[in-house]
Amino acid sequence: MRELSDTTRRQSRKKRLAFGAMATLIVLSVVELTSWIAINVITADGLKAIHTVQDGLAIGGGGSGSLNETVHPYLGWVMNPETCPPTVVGGRSIPVNQFGFNDEEQPLPKRSADRLIVGFVGGSVAWQMSVQGESAFRAALRQNPSWRDRELRVVRLAMPGFKQPQQLMAVNYLLALGAEFDVIVNIDGYNEIALSACENEKSGVFAAYPRMWHARMLDVVDPRVSANSFRLLRIRAARQELARGIRESWFRWSPTFNLVWKIRDSCAERQLLDLAASLAEHKAGQGRGFAADGPRQFYTDENGLFDHLRDLWSNSSLQIHYLCRGNGTKYLHVLQPNQYLPGSKRLSALEREKMFSENQDYGKAIERGYPLLLEDGIRLRAQGVDFHNMTMLFAAVDEPVYADEYCHFNARGNEILARAVAEAIIDAFGSTADHK
Q1: Residue 49: phi, psi to the nearest 5?
Q2: Which residues have C-beta within 8 Å of that of residue 115, sequence separation ≥ 6?
Q3: Neighbouring C-beta atoms of residue 362, cutoff 10 Å
Q4: Distance (Å, whole) CA 114 – CA 130
Q5: Domains in the chain, please, with CATH?
Q6: Which of the residues 92, 95, 304, 396 has the least number of beta carbons within 10 Å of its own beta carbon?
């Protein structure tokens, strides 16, 4: 009987352990399921969205700017090759190279008798044309017998949002590094007017500064609020450590651990918002400071603003012209087409409905500022700049060429512009093309 009793106790203990294990497993499963449901309620894509936030925090600590951009000492900003994914345009993937430009990784360009090096500067229109219109551009240049068998190298120094003098600085920077070009093509006009007048000026930022410079300077500490800025950075560092910790944990895929992380991170985020409100109150009372806003404006009214934007645009172009001339490089300046310049295109029904806004501030700025650029373009040509007014490039085109209600073109528009630029380059070299 005693042996039976011991056997019974052992079996009972095993049953209790098994029951306890089963109960624990059921409880954990219920907790995990409940956490999974909660995560999917508070976030649209569940754990995927949580992990995306964690990855961003682990890399950047919750900085205020885009993780894809980084402030540059000479150019204002460029793309961050460590965090920015390739840009896909028309099925083509363009990476970010070591210099922070959306372009294939390649060594600094050097001139050669069997090579033609074309550098593009400007904003998003210049960049998109260099990608979507590249095939048409190459084919058009190949029509010149002198370049039919040469290597044609395209170098993209254009950047969405760039405006003068960033193009000037980009050319300066690459030349200082030892780059050589046969041709520099600057396609601009829209950003210089619309972004400066409708973003920088309205935000109280010096018009000559890069686009929305005050937003890019949010992480730069104003010495007048050092204490709050230090607290803000400390909270960001804590959020970064939390994110890194769970990314490296065995429980990275546990809904419960991720839910706990989300709660803790949300608390830290609320503290950041409180601090940001305090800093905003200070800035409202005392201003953002020189680092964010730059010098006082040079003008007193709207007429003065547009005169300043015109002068900045033409002065920058003239300086690129001098740089290129001193380095034996052809320079072409192209004033890009835009749908808000009256008479520049008969808009299709689609363009009129989707690609044009009657009351858009950017469009109103273009309607006012472009005539000033056209006038100064004549003066630029008189000073030796190979300036091309392409604002009427689409005047006889009935099909849609615009892709949005701002300034961008669809594939057809980019191909038309690319061929026009190629023809301008051929004309620029003329009979000297055989000797290049």
Answers
A1: -65, -40
A2: 150, 151, 152, 153, 182
A3: 21
A4: 21
A5: 87-214+296-435 (3.40.50.1110)
A6: 396
Q: Report the 10 Å Cβ neighbour count for 328.
A: 11
With CA atoms as reference, report the closest residue to 121 among 272, 319, 290.
319
Please provide the size of the chain in residues: 436
Distances (CA, A) of 397 to 191, 285, 346, 412: 24, 52, 7, 11
Residue with tokens 């200082």: 176
Smallest CA-to-CA distance from 133 within 175, 95, 185 is with 185
Write the CB contacts of 420 (distance below 8 Å, at least 6 apart in sequence): 388, 390, 393
pTM equals 0.78
pLDDT at residue 267, rounded to an integer: 82
The dihedral through the CA atoms of 352, 356, 357, 363 has a sign that is: negative
235 neighbors 271 (Cβ within 8 angstroms): yes
Please name which of 331, 328, 301, 294 lies closest in space to residue 316, comparing C-alpha atoms: 331
Q: Do the bridges between strand 115-122 and strand 151-156 make them parallel or antiparallel, or are there none, so unpaired?
A: parallel
Question: Which residue shows structure tokens 């961003």?
Answer: 56
Give the tens place of pLDDT for each residue, 427-436: 999 855 544 4
